[in-house]
Specification:
The complex is a heterodimer of chains A (330) and B (384).
Chain A lengths: L2 H17 L1 H23 L7 H26 L7 H19 L3 H24 L4 H23 L3 E3 L11 H21 L1 H11 L1 H6 L4 H27 L1 E3 L6 H11 L13 H19 L4 H19 L10
Antiparallel strand pairs in A: 1-2
Chain B lengths: L1 H17 L10 E6 L5 H17 L2 E6 L6 H11 L4 E6 L5 H7 L4 E5 L22 E5 L6 H15 L3 E6 L6 H20 L5 E2 L4 E2 L20 E4 L3 H4 L1 H10 L7 E5 L5 H4 L8 E7 L5 H11 L12 E2 L3 E4 L2 H10 L15 H4 L12 H8 L10
Parallel strand pairs in B: 1-2, 1-3, 3-4, 4-5, 5-12, 6-7, 6-8, 6-9, 9-10, 10-11
Antiparallel strand pairs in B: 11-13
Helix pairs in contact in B: 3-4, 5-6
The chains are: A mainly alpha (330), B alpha/beta (384).
Chain lengths: 330, 384
């Protein structure tokens, strides 16, 4: 190989790394965490890959990952939904109440899907129809659902409600959690990468005007991603409620932030567009959970884990942030 | 530049992780599922339990409970912090106790410092644990019964001679104890009024604060501008006091309006406003040295030397500090561990005072004496 060819190859590699810096950073972060905690926990006489810890890890990651996979569709539009957490809280509550009333999860699941799809349609269409940022309608839903939840628990007279008489062992099995996550990933991945729904969503995120002038029905293809998210949220709610068999007025609080942090750690471009990747959801959620589970094992005091997570988050943002303006979705 | 900062932060992080102290040989780890993450009470409990744990040969760590006390959130926090050497946990969050015990059936669990003893009642969501061997009982945050708290506050109001008072509580679904306390308070005042020459008026129903401060319009409603005292069963120093001070400055209420409530903070500005003739006239808190009880119970269980007279799980009051005079507030500032800076040497019980109540140190230690000792601390103890 000539010196010129070698030089060109080197330049190509540098170009590739520059082009995929966010992927490299996020995947590199996950790989680093895996290696670091494998060695670090081993030195402490424990293993993060032991059955117990693996189960903890999967239990920790499942709800966030299920939500984040659906949220990728929304973020690819350049939008953000801050009602995610409250929606999961509402659906968990509905599953318990309807489950206790009927003795089965099915009616609750159907009711949740109906409510979730209605909220999704309104959330998706409101921004375009009312000419406002889409995040505003999700803020409205967050507040409305919060009020509804408070009324429900006030009427019930308890902060926690427990589902009884329904077998929830399916939702406590780590194997089932992984299977459901893989299925959801494949289904959403199919729609995201291999159908017009995903392609149009990303093109709207990249440049809505160009997409509209290319004949894309903006309202329709803004609403459909929210419907995908609705199904993902109901699935996440099933696992959220199913793990403890309980729901409370606080269930879901802050989940929207968990999703956002996971997506950023996974290298998701927050302005959406063609570079949006579904893998960001799982990579970010796994990295976040590895830190949560691994740091205490290597002896880091709990109070320091927050600081370490914040530093890692900052490092990833510094590496992946490329835009000089408008970095946040709307 | 961004990449350089990222690199520096990464290096700093790696260096920090490299100096994580190696864990010493110990009898195991004790966790605290905390309902606090800052403040002088939090600092005291962490330092006090750490001191006791080290003397007993354990390590100690804090697990920060879910900020909203969600059962799944609390379980997740415990699972993340759990390591194979964890032997027991002190639980101050009520959400998810059953789930935590289901997840870790070999871990000893004891309740302490929760305002929600009601979860262990017959129809409470955590009643199930009251029959489990690994659950060692619950010592509440001051009185476990709302009845006792309401009556205590009523006696304070009667003793101070207020004639027009109002009450504030948190929502019943979240804090049922407050509603019980409010009813007991009203009943006690009504009983007093039957024989009193000058009866006490309770203005309106209890104001329900949905974890938000008192509203700006609270004092504009009829009768409230004449209030002499607000009784806050909720955390009044946080949710009532700031708005009360604002209202006084605006002239919306009486200049001599005072607050009876719970909670303690060593913020100098707040403490300067506590006393007989100040805005905060009485604070009721848990006697902090009661913290000996849960760790003594865990030690006895973990070391396999359970008290011979242990009757099974009990739910009980802790010591109660009723700080209701200028002298007592001053004693808390000057002589208690919770003064301007944390000082464990001022605690009413030092290791040498308490060690004989631990069965691993003194096999003849008695549960009844331990409980009595842990319920005996008073604020007057700092005035000797």
């Amino acid at each position: 190989m000539t010196a010129i060819a070698q030089d060109r190859e080197k330049q190509n590699l540098v170009q590739w790394i520059k082009k995929h810096s966010s992927t490299v950073a996020s995947l590199g972060g996950l790989v680093f965490c895996i290696i670091f905690f494998t060695i670090g926990t081993g030195m402490k006489g424990e293993s993060i890959w032991s059955g117990d810890k693996l189960s903890t890890l999967i239990g920790d990651v499942i709800v966030t990952a299920l939500m984040a996979v659906g949220a990728v569709f929304i973020y690819s539009l350049g939008n953000m939904d801050v009602s995610i957490g409250r929606q999961v809280g509402l659906y968990s509550t509905m599953l318990v109440l309807i489950g206790n009333a009927t003795g089965s999860l099915l009616p609750g699941i159907l009711a949740c899907i109906v409510v979730a799809v209605i909220i999704g349609i309104i959330n998706g269409a409101a921004g375009e129809l009312l000419h406002m940022y889409s995040v505003i309608s999700s803020v409205v839903f967050m507040m409305v659902i919060s009020g509804i939840t408070t009324i429900i628990y006030s009427n019930v007279g308890s902060k926690n409600i427990i589902l009884s008489g329904v077998d929830l062992s399916f939702f406590r099995s780590p194997v089932n959690m992984v299977i459901v996550l893989v299925i959801e990933y494949l289904v959403i991945g199919y729609f995201f990468y291999f159908t017009k729904y995903g392609k149009y969503a990303r093109s709207i995120g990249a440049n809505q005007t160009a997409a509209a002038q290319s004949g894309v029905n903006i309202i329709k293809y803004r609403v459909i991603p929210y419907i995908f998210l609705a199904f993902c949220l109901v699935t996440a709610s099933l696992f959220q409620m199913g793990y403890t068999g309980a729901a409370s007025d606080a269930t879901g609080t802050g989940f929207e932030m968990n999703v956002m942090v996971s997506l950023i750690l996974g290298g998701m471009p927050l302005k959406g567009g063609m570079k949006s990747r579904l893998s960001c959801a799982v990579i970010g959620a796994l990295t976040f959970s590895l830190l949560a589970v691994g740091l205490p094992i290597i002896g880091v005091p709990t109070r320091m884990t927050f600081m370490i997570k914040a530093i890692i988050f900052l490092v990833v943002v510094l590496i992946t942030c490329r835009q000089k303006s408008g970095p946040l979705p709307r | 530049m961004k990449k350089l900062i990222a690199l520096l932060l990464t290096l700093a992080l790696l260096m920090g992780l490299a100096v994580v102290p190696a864990s010493a040989e110990s009898k195991g780890k004790i966790l605290w599922l905390s309902n606090l993450n800052s403040g002088i009470q939090y600092e005291f409990y962490v330092a006090y339990w750490k001191m006791i744990a080290e003397n007993l040969g354990y390590t100690f760590d804090v697990v920060y409970g879910d900020m909203s006390n969600d059962p799944a959130g609390n379980l997740k926090q415990v699972k993340n912090a759990y390591t194979s050497d964890v032997k027991g946990i002190i639980i101050s969050m009520d959400g998810g106790v059953v789930n935590i015990m289901d997840e870790y059936p070999d871990m000893w669990v004891v309740g302490f410092f929760s305002d929600m003893d009601s979860v262990f009642e017959e129809n409470g969501p955590s009643h199930d644990v009251m029959t489990r061997e690994k659950f060692l009982g619950n010592m509440g945050d001051n009185y476990i019964s709302g009845q006792a708290l309401g009556e205590a506050y009523a006696q304070e109001v009667i003793a101070r001679g207020y004639k027009k008072v109002a009450t504030c509580i948190f929502p019943v679904f979240a804090y049922p104890k407050h509603t019980v306390a409010d009813a007991a308070f009203r009943a006690a005042i009504a009983a007093h009024n039957e024989t009193a020459a000058d009866p006490i008026e309770i203005v309106g129903d209890a104001e329900v604060l949905a974890f938000q401060p008192l509203s700006d319009s609270y004092f504009l409603e009829q009768g409230r501008d004449e209030l002499e005292c607000i009784v806050g069963f909720c955390a009044g120093t946080t949710f009532i006091y700031p708005k009360m001070v604002e209202a006084k400055a605006m002239g919306f209420c009486r200049d001599d309006l005072q607050l009876i409530t719970g909670g303690f903070d060593n913020d100098p500005d707040l403490l300067a406003d506590c006393g007989d003739d100040k805005n905060i006239v009485s604070l009721t808190i848990q006697g902090i040295e009661s913290a000996i009880w849960p760790i003594a119970m865990l030690d006895a269980a973990i070391s396999g030397t359970m008290y011979k007279d242990y009757p099974g799980q009990e739910r009980m009051d802790s010591s109660v500090f009723t700080i209701n005079s200028t002298e007592k507030f001053q004693a808390m500032i000057d002589n208690s561990p919770m003064g301007p800076t944390l000082d464990l040497s001022k605690a009413q019980a030092q290791w040498d005072d308490m060690k004989d109540y631990f069965t691993s140190v003194n096999p003849d230690a008695s549960y009844a004496e331990l409980t009595k000792y842990c319920q005996s601390f008073t604020v007057e103890g700092y005035m000797k």
